[in-house]
Amino acid sequence: MLEQFLGTDITQSAPVLDRATDGDDALLDAYSRAVVSAAERVSPSVAKIEIRQSARGPGGESRERRGGGSGFVFTPDGLVLTNSHVVHDATRIELSLPDGRLFPAHLIGDDPATDLAVVRVDGPNLPAAPLGDSQKLRVGQLAIAIGNPYGFQYTVTAGVVSALGRSLRSYSGRLIEDVIQTDASLNPGNSGGPLVSSSGEVIGVNTATIMGAQGLCFAIGINTAKFVASRLLTQGRIRRAYIGIEAQTVPLHRRIVRFYDLARESGVMVVGVEASSPAERAGVREGDVIVAFNGQPTAGVDDLHRLLTDTQVGVKTWVTMVRRTERLELAIVPQEGRSAR
Known about the structure:
The protein is of the alpha+beta class. It has helices spanning 2-6, 10-42, 84-87, 222-235, 254-259, 278-282, 301-307; strands at 46-56, 62-73, 79-82, 92-96, 102-111, 116-121, 142-147, 155-169, 175-182, 194-196, 202-209, 217-221, 241-242, 245-251, 266-273, 289-293, 296-297, 317-323, 326-332, 335-336.
């Protein structure tokens, strides 16, 4: 009766349902295999980092503060990548691996402007994570995060690359460029851990989440991390040019923009000039608005930061600015900046 009511033969339709179920299982298995394979390849290199810092209590007494995060070994001789904010100002760093080994570590160098740091441990047979190429990433591809959220060691979460080319404000105030956005779940303790592709290569260094938001997590592209790590290893720091001003982004009057045919409708207003700085020696004054640096328009402070690279250190550079209603060209010689938070 049921067969007549449905107008079909249940015994004939059952194989169709089985085939659909088999297809779903095959897809799920392929996804699972990709995550499992990538996690097994990289997890042995993922480190739990614990640090101690000296801090002052409310009464001025000295006391010790504990913290930590994640990192990953990227060379067999014990070099480890992590976030600057994980190890910055640490008086003691300890690193543990999934095989149970515990190592004291020392800081090679850190760069708050990109929130990256390199530490070293001494030990035999250290597993190194393979590094990928973040320039080849595509939106929608699988992304796997491995770390130690809230102290739960070697936790694996998976998602996709949600967007590329994001900018993220670092702890030093500079913008970190070419940041990867992902929805792979990150929590406190994941900082410094690897973001991994389905092929088991590290494509980013997990660095931040937006508190209160779901699925908005960020990682610094591994290509940026490679560059920063190489500079930290050779020089112990990242050299950046410094001119010695405090500044803010301001809109320009339309008449000034039209009269001087400026490329942007905003600029960098100087709100303070440090004593004996390159800016003071060049004659920069409070209230001046920088509209171009070395011929490149500066619509805001972030533009100026991007142009103050190590190649500008010690090089005579022309700065275009507006002082009240007058356009000026001043020669300035940037010096190497201080790395500060």
